[in-house]
Amino acid sequence: MNQQEFLNIVLPVKDKLYRLAKRLLVSSDEAEDAVQEVFLKLWKGKEKIKEYKNPEAFAFTMVKNYCLDRLKSKQAGNLKIVHSNYKNQDNLERRVEANEGVSMVFKIMDSLPEKQKMVMQLRDIEQLDFSEISEILDMNPTTIRVTLSRARKTVREQLIKQYNYGIG
Amino acid sequence: MELDRIKTLLDAYFEGTSTLAQEKELQDYFCGSNVAPQLEAYRSMFSAFSEAKNEVSSRVLKVDNNPISSQKWWYGIAATVAVLAIVAGFVFSNTGMTKEEKEALAAYKQTKQALQLLSQKLNQGTESLVAINQFTVAKNKILK
Fold first, then answer.
1. Could B51 and A31 be called an inter-chain contact, meaning their C-beta atoms sit closer than 8 Å?
2. Is the four-CA dihedral A41, B55, A130, A72 of positive or negative sign?
3. HEC string of B63-124?
4. Which of A11, A43, A146 sits opposite B66 (nearest CB)?
5. B128/B141 same-domain check
6. Are A104 and B44 an interchain contact pair (Cβ–Cβ within 8 Å)?
7. Could you list the residue range(s) of the whole structural domain that residue B89 is in?
8. Both B84 and B123 in a single domain?
9. Which of A21, A132, B87, B96 would bridge A128 by S-S if both were Cys, CB 3.0 to 4.6 A apart?
């Protein structure tokens, strides 16, 4: 497989992988690093990539594992995640900022447990079906449904709470 | 009518039982302009999801570095071999000793040779002394 063929396979999923990484790691720099790292690993093992029945799911799983490892090592090192991108926001984030309700949703999502974050990201944002999510996260569809339901309800509750307080 | 349908879909949505198509329907409804006021709170949820999907990675991938780096790997091997060869060369060429050491070694060899010669001669002497034993033999025969 040459570089072009490889890129043809991986580039369409790049942004999706990036979004998952960012959902977990929060920092956009770290998310970019995660994607780059995973692509390098995939490139090294590129001869095998065609053997996987679903290379996209495989890439997602690698990103998930990479990010969870990063988070674990951060916890172990007692380091706080640096939300550096909150300071230098790009255009999109500034636009998001303009909509208080939307940024509230993102904040609530940041506070969710990792599993719920991932399931919500893959389902509500990337619109994958349960079988793909179950392949990526190695969870059975029932667990995914329950996790998803919890995540959605938490977002709703928090959001309604905020609405009742009135968004300042 | 439509409101009822949306409410039913929302219930399924929060139970995690809605299908992708139904979720798409909700998404379209809440991103549209005529959201019922009592459902306003949900609007930000669905617009957040569609906003989130627009986010893209801005960094350019650098996988092409990899084949070069595997070449560099060979450079690394080559460099290691070269360094080893040079080190080995130094180690082995150092067995060539200084002049003084050489002289000492030559002297040592000569002395060894000389001593060997001496011991050879001595051994020859002792061999010829074997005949002396005959006296003991003869004496033992007589004096039992």
1. no
2. positive
3. CCHHHHHHHHHHHHHHHHHHHHHHHHHHHHHCCCCCHHHHHHHHHHHHHHHHHHHHHHHHHH
4. A43
5. yes
6. yes
7. 57-96
8. no
9. A132
Query: Measured between beta carbons, which residues in chain B are less than 8 angstroms from residue A106?
Result: 48, 52
pLDDT tens sequence across A56-94: 888 899 999 999 999 988 776 655 555 555 544 455 554
* Minimal Cβ distance to B15: which of A92, A149, A159: A149
The tally of domains found in chain B comes to: 3
* Domain-wise residue ranges, chain A: 1-88, 91-168
B87 and B117 housed in the same domain? no
- The structure tokens 């949820």 sit at B45
| Interface contact A18-B13, CB threshold 8 A | no
Nearest CB partner across the interface for A40, out of B40, B58, B63: B63
Count of pairs with CB atoms under 8 A, one residue in A, one in B: 102
Least confident of A92-106, B2-16, B71-85: A92-106
| C-alpha to C-alpha distance for B64 and A147, rounded to whole angstroms | 39
Which ranges of chain A have pLDDT less than 70? 76-98, 166-168
ipTM for the predicted complex comes to 0.79
The answer to whether A160 contacts B41, with C-beta atoms less than 8 Å apart, is: yes
CA-nearest residue to A45 within chain B is B66
- Listed in sequence order, the residues at least 6 apart from A152 whose beta carbon sits closer than 8 Å to its beta carbon are A120, A124, B13, B14, B16
Domain A1-88 in CATH 3.40.30.10? The answer is: no
Whether residue A101 contacts residue B35, with contact meaning beta carbons closer than 8 Å, is answered with no
Q: Compute how many other C-beta atoms are within 10 angstroms of the C-beta atom of residue B23.
A: 18
Task: At A115, list the tokens.
Answer: 């599993």
Q: In this structure, are B81 and B39 located in the same domain? A: no
Q: Is A152 in Cβ contact with B16 (below 8 Å)?
A: yes
Could you please state the CATH topology (level 3) that the domain comprising A91-168 is classified under: Arc Repressor Mutant, subunit A (1.10.10)
* Cα–Cα nearest to A60, from A26, A27, A14: A14
